[in-house]
Amino acid sequence: MILDNFQRKLRRESQLWRDEGLISASQYQQIADRYQFNNLEAAARDRSMMTAVMIGSILLTLGIITFVAANWLGWSRDVKFIIMMSLFMATTITGFYTWRQATIGIPEGKKPKRSQRLLGEGLLILAAMVFGATIALMADVFNINGSTPELFFAWGFGVLVMAYSLSLNSLGIMGIILIEIGYLIGIGDLRYSANDWNWAQLVIKHMPLLSWVLFVPLAYFCRSRWIFAIAAFIFASSLQLNLDPLPLSNFADTAPWVASFAFTLPPALFWSYDDLLFPTINYRLFQPLARDLALIAFGLAFYVLSFRWLWQTSNFSSPTSNIDIFMYRPIIDLGILSGLAVLQWLFLVRQRNNPIRREAVFNLPLIVTFLGFTAIVPFWHQAINPIDDLGVFAFNVLFAVLAWGLIREGLKFNDRRSFWGGMLLLNLQVISRMLEYDTELLFKSLVFVMCGSALISAGLWFERRLGGSKSSSNVKSL
Questions:
Q1: Same-domain status, 258 and 281
Q2: What burial class does residue 232 get, using C-beta atoms within 10 Å of its C-beta: 0-12 exposed, 13-18 middle, 19+ buried?
Q3: Does residue 338 share a domain with residue 468?
Q4: Residue 323 pLDDT class (50, 70, 90 cuts)
Q5: Are 307 and 329 contained in the same domain?
Q6: Which structural domain, as residue segments, surrounds residue 337?
Q7: Contact in structure between 294 and 282 (CB atoms under 8 Å)
Q8: Residue 440 to residues 191, 434, 447: CA-CA distances in angstroms?
Q9: % helix / strand / coil in the chain, to the nearest 5?
Q10: Which of 189, 268, 405, 423 is the most buried (most CB within 10 A)?
């Protein structure tokens, strides 16, 4: 849509240039051939047809659903099964062949039709939704007692198989979201039903490992940075929810190593990640994104651990429950993922002769220092000796160092994203500390004014510096 708008504006402007004599008719024709002005009407026609087909398909689907609902109670079990499976198979086959024909460009000599491809992909998504409805209805018909997480897991894994088969981003994201919904619904019962084992509880307990094993390869199948980022987020978030490391003063129900694994493992895996570890991959597709995610993980961990109340110990100790904390925590996942992290770091050390750009600022000693403090300080606080204020101070310093490193990276490589990220982190740290401690309103007003002024001044200075450096580089190139 954005490209079509650009082409329409360019066609209108080039026609005006031709009429005013700024360009010749042959130059206009060259522009028209280059930007395919003749295809604009065909694209508009395809969009109109696709819209009509999509609206008609939705109405047709609603009609079928209404018809099925009206006669559902009067049909036998076999008829219900045949109808639902027929609807699923018809939608899947129609969507697959529509998408397939557009992908391979049938008939020969023609380019793939975008509208036909989108229509086929839409029908496949509709088939995935019909698949979920079929699972729910068949469970009701055959009196299969199942929980809501089991429904979403079965639905999500089925859609995930479709995504692997067709290498479709939309189906992959849909399957991951469905599995995550089932996980979020069932995570609340994991701690208090550790002894009631079923396959859904097993999936919930091992979600960190499953998300890494199932979702990351799917990102390569689909070549999708979105799927890789979502997989990394689900891995890190499920690890935190399953380990439940906070607050650090919860000595009764939390083992001293839990917080170290929870906050250290995600950035350790992300920073050492290398696509070349896969035998069939000979290019780095997701390594830069993984490095960005590692810095985000560091930032979140440092920010959370910089709050004083998480470290404060009290004389009151809650009675220890009868729950075995090792039953619901992913001990197997921690062992496998820790081994993978060690393997990745060994591979990273071997590849030191070919460093990437980001390592010019966030070098290996600095990252190892981040990981060391993140692993050792919470463990020392919980297992050896409480270090309330020292721990707060350490992670505030680490948070400031991370922010300053991003600012340095932005200045060194003229990267707006890194520079503004570091500036926002510094301001967030100052404002958080001001709000955390009991301060007067006048002091709070002064802090807000100073942060705002510093942000504006630094931003204007950086943009002038960036503009000057680009002007000088252009002059040198001339």
A1: yes
A2: buried
A3: no
A4: very low
A5: yes
A6: 244-316+323-430
A7: no
A8: 42, 10, 11
A9: 80, 0, 20
A10: 268
Half-sphere exposure of 240 (CA within 13 A, CB side): 15
> pLDDT tens-digit profile of 291-318?
999 999 999 999 999 998 888 765 444 4
**AA letter at 266:** P
Q: What is the pLDDT of residue 244?
A: 82
Domain contains 346: yes
Q: Considering the domain boundaries, does residue 204 fall inside one?
A: no
- The two three-digit tokens of residue 117, written as one number: 């491809």
Last residue of a domain, one of 430, 447, 463: 430
- 328 with 373, same domain: the answer is yes
- Length of the chain in residues, anyone? 478
Instruction: Decide if 34 contacts 14 (C-beta within 8 A).
Output: no
Residue type, 398: L
Residue 134 pLDDT > 90: no
Check: CB of residue 32 under 8 Å from CB of residue 38: yes
Reduced to 3 states (helix: H, G, I; strand: E, B; else coil), residue 191 is coil
Contact 182, 149 (CB under 8 A): yes
CB 175 within 8 A of CB 163: yes
- Global pTM reads 0.81
Q: Which residues contact 143 (CB under 8 A, 6 or more apart)?
A: none
Number of domains the chain contains? 2
Closest by alpha carbon to 454, among 464, 462, 443, 444? 462
Give the tens place of pLDDT for each residue, 3-43: 456 667 777 777 787 777 777 777 777 777 776 666 666 66
Alpha helices in 257-387 (DSSP H): 258-271, 287-305, 325-328, 331-350, 364-379
**To which residue do tokens 């696709």 refer?**
50
Do 426 and 443 reside in the same domain of the chain?
no
Q: Using CA atoms, how far apart are residues 289 and 292, in angstroms rounded to an integer?
A: 5
Residue 72 included in any domain: no
| Same structural domain, 401 and 333 | yes
Domain check: are 264 and 339 in the same one? yes
Six token digits for residue 26: 């042959």
